[in-house]
Amino acid sequence: MNIKNIKSLLALTSFTLATVLMQGSVMAQQKTDPQFNKMMKDGFKADGIAGLDRIDQDATQKFCSDPVFASSKQGEKMREKIQKMNMDSIKQPSDGKYIGDWKKGEAIAQSGRGATWTDTASTAVGGGCYNCHQIDKKEISYGTIGPTLWNYGKLRGYSNEVVTYTWNRVNNSKAYNACSNMPRFAHFKLLNEQQIQDVMALLLDPASPVNQ
Amino acid sequence: MQRKLSLGLAFGVLGSLLSIASSSFAQSATDDIAKYREMIAEGNPSELYEAAGEELWKKPAGPKNVTLEKCDLGLGPGIVKGAAAQLPRYFKDTNKVQDLESRLMTCMQKLQGRDPQEMIDAPFQNGPKKDMEAIVAYVVTLSKGDKINVSTNHPKEKEMYELGKRAFFFQGGPMDFSCASCHGEDGKRIRLQDLPNITTQKGAALGWGYWPAYRVSSGQFWTMQQRLNDCYRQQRFPFPIYGSDVTIALSMYMAKNANGGTVETPGLKR
Question: Residue B1's domain spans which residues?
Fold first, then answer.
């Protein structure tokens, strides 16, 4: 082996080492920490419908609990993997219908109820959409964690692409943004297919007040 | 008598303000609530809890029939003034980092012989918790106006802060929420409710500095433990155990981030 080869081998080795070390520091928080896990396990009790399984994280939740890593260059591959996994879980409507009744959709968007330990299994779960989004301008009590949805269809049009994208986004927002703040409504069965069709109508029925 | 009268008047004004607020625009609704806060600032209903708490502090109770007057909240036995501003902190006798409520449970156990499990199991606003809430109101009022000054010099304090930070970002439940889902960005709202960004000093001071508080919508005085409990309820998590390490760790994270801010407790909240 000549000197030149040894030099390039050394350079390659140090580069590899540096990369591994850098990843190590970014990934530090991804490691499981027995002390933290014990604190979480001992810190909660099941109450009604809110069982302890709710703090058993799935891959998406685990990944997004470390926002520094999740938004880093090193986290990119995992981010794509998570998005693909969530995209693959989305089912298109079984009856081929995307647009339901916007009036029912508005009621679902208004309600932020359900799924807490003070609710029961029969409490209707709301979409809670107004908690985070402006939707119909007539409702002045809206949140700002998500973007405004006023004139949603009017601005984007009613093409198949827009309809499918919106369906996917409401069903499982993590298909497009691994750590989106929006709940995965179909994945955790918070809303059923018909309810999602109704919410779709609020956004994409040309007759919906949102599109006036 | 006069105080009771002015409180009653303030509630009446609140009722009409809230109804105006709901039929008005977003911005002016927020303004009205701010106006109400100003009006009632001289007569926060927490005063009723404080008075009851002071009595409970000085009254012999529990199997040992002893008062809490020798309770050490971190500044030495019996020193209440300024104590809430430096909590949570590490305590040598328990070898633990404790927040105000877990520390008060220790005092009730050691001085009065009371069983902390009864306190842990009691529902908020009921039985022994009612006493706790009054005592908390008394203690936090004696730090009003002080600078928040929480230490992470002890390794256990530093450790608790790091655990709290991790808990703050921990996602779970059927809605994937963590504390950070709502409290990790500046200038956000849920409906009309402004959300402090607790990852910043300013936001943490707005949150930590104003709780415990009298909560107008429920007509109750809420301790920090109850505030955290209701956050987790809305996060769709299981029930956080009263005084558990996760609640203390989160308090440590918030309090340390808020350092340098002012204690405004008891606050007055929506």
Answer: 1-43
